[in-house]
Amino acid sequence: MADVPVWLVVGLGNPGPSYAGHRHNVGYLVVDELARRLGSGFRAHKSGRADVVEGRLGAPGTPGPRVVLAKPRSYMNEVGGPTKALATFYKVTPERIIAIHDELDIDFGTLRIKCGGGDNGHNGLKSLRSSFGSGDFYRVRAGIGRPPGRQEVSDFVLSNYSGAERKELPFQVDSAADAVETLITDGLEKTQQRFNS
Known about the structure:
The chain is α/β, with parallel strands linked by helices. Helices cover 36% and strands 20% of the residues. It has one domain: 3-Layer(aba) Sandwich (Rossmann fold). The chain has a seven-stranded mixed beta sheet with strand order 2-3-4-1-5-7-6, sandwiched between helices. The N and C termini lie far apart (35 Å).
């Protein structure tokens, strides 16, 4: 298994129960779903700065691609450090990293998958770009939409989903998890054709 290339799938969010339901934490929700599909629970990585699940994608008994799911224990604006430490440990280059994050400029319930690009004001992406010296990693962008009225963006992303959104959220999380699996097994173009609704 050690010789098989690894994909590092990082859910962006803030640690701790007080942040768990926030829009900014949708990345955590998606890696939780992927871990559930692998039948594994997160455990502390020896770096001490992230929780991880290691496994193989695909049906039980089939040697699918090797993946490491990660939830950095740092706050959003510092996720680059723990992610870089994991990438070094597992010998993963940026082109085999998938970051899952919330996206203001996409309507809630919608996904966009891409590789590379700027950070668009997202502190998690900014931290990753700074730590790796590159933005050339994959992004699974889960739309949260823009704040209503004059609500500050920072307050909006650090607030809970509305009641109506909470009913739809499991579908978005499930779809984002599917997108991660498709990206790893079938590549970017097929994933974009299927999920960039």
